[in-house]
Amino acid sequence: LNSINGSYSVVLTGLTHNTLYYYEVRSNNTEGYTDSDTNTFSTEEIFAPEGPPVDLTVTSLNSQTVQFQWSPVIASLRNGYITSYTIYCNTTQVEPVVISAISSIEMNQGMYSTEITGLTPYTVYVCGVYANNTVDAGPNITLQIMTDEDIPESSPEDIRVTPSTSSSVLVTWSLPTLPNGVITRFTLFIDFLNDTTKFFHVSGTTFEYEIMSLSPYQMVQVRVSAWTSSGEGPLSDTSSGRSGEGIPGVVQDIVYDTISSSHLIVSFTNQTMDIARGIILEYEITIELYEGGEIMTIVIPANSTDYIAEFNGLRGQVPYTVTVIAINSAGRGEMIEMIVFTEEGRPPPPSNVMATRLNGTHMNVSWDRIPITQSNGFITSYTIAYTRVVTDTKRQSGSVTVSADLNSAVVGELDSSAEYSISVSGATAGGIGEASSQVLVPAPASEDSGGFVLSGMILILIICGGVTLLLVIVIISVLVIVILKLKHNPKKSLQPEIGLKVEPETAFQMAQSPAYGKIFPMSSEEENGSTFLSALNPTYGSGSDHTYERISTVLTSHSFTQYDCPKPQLPAPRSTNKAML
Asked: How does pLDDT run across 5-33, given as a tens digit for each residue?
């Protein structure tokens, strides 16, 4: 220290704490120097804080942020002044946060408060706080905390669409890499590529779904999303797949050309997917005689540039059957059959030609159609030729042409008094064939015979109907009269004839008949070989005087009658208190 005489002080830094130091002071002038006595001093014994912060709470504010609150280290454990606090969570994603111990901004009612953000949703962390002084950091206090759920950050993984059957596919997937919570459900978005889209929800514990009711080898596109309690996550990329192959359908657009009577070409195009129902491997074209024999088969691979089959060595005016089948990995498809002629000729005459006169002006003509094996071609029509058979010069002739699928026709505008001759012929692309033998159709017995018979039948029906109606009216009238008489005089009846013995059951049924009024109560008994009925007639009532009316009844094999009588003088009551029938 270069200075004049005076008092001095000096601060020494960089010393080591808890250390004994020796010191002395030397003074210098122009004549020399003098040393002071040796003295000592010791630095203070300073340590890091011995206690942690207290009353720590850690609260999840959202899926990425937690809040810390704590109280300062107890004063006796601070070992000096606390300079700062360090807050951290056990992750490398977020750096620890250091706040000043003397900051009042973070203080809240005597407690420190701060937040850490940037954490991963739905993740368990161990978070803590420790105090710092000029020496070092003190011990920490920790708590375990889980951040809140969030929507999934990624989509489901490993989505596959594989064929299950020819009408279904199986979709499988796995959990998202970053679910951000508990997956509660998955949503499948399905595009059927036919202007139809649908979506389906499945449980969060289910990782497959079968899409049903597809066409064979139908393509579908699928995307999947996952859900937590916070909402739906992103959709996955599109995954595609097809249902299994099915048996091919009927080959369409088949064309055949007859080059000559012995040369035939069959051609078609590669089939669309709705017919192929998979990947066509090959086509099989077969030709054989309609009645069997002379089989020739040509197989065309599906990857051919054209689909043409040529057959030679055939015969004209003979029917052949051509079949075409598509084949895929599911098997042989539906067969289509065609009947072809390489050349057509005139057909033979139809057989079994018959004609029936319906009336004076109309007749019905029928015949057997010419079989394909004899027709020399495809029958296109049948023609009925008819001619009036007369002895004078007046003649009438004509024809009726009908389609090939008919075997009968009605010819009209005939002369009711004339006989006709008819014949039938067929036609193909090769021309009109030979006509059948002539069939004579005689004229009706008389001009009006048909109309007379019909009129007579109608008249008979009218007469029979009138008689029946009259009989019904008479029967109803009689029944009404009888019912009215019985209603006004129910006890009036015919004089009895000879009494007949009947079974008790029969007597009961007759006496209880509604047509005569109900007589009750009723009982029966056998006495000396005869049946007796006892009945209390409600006309006279009942009482203790045992008043009964005797009702006599004559029983025949089919009916019974009764006669009206005044109340009789009854003999002394029987022991059973019954009048006898």
From this structure: 778 888 888 887 667 889 998 888 888 88
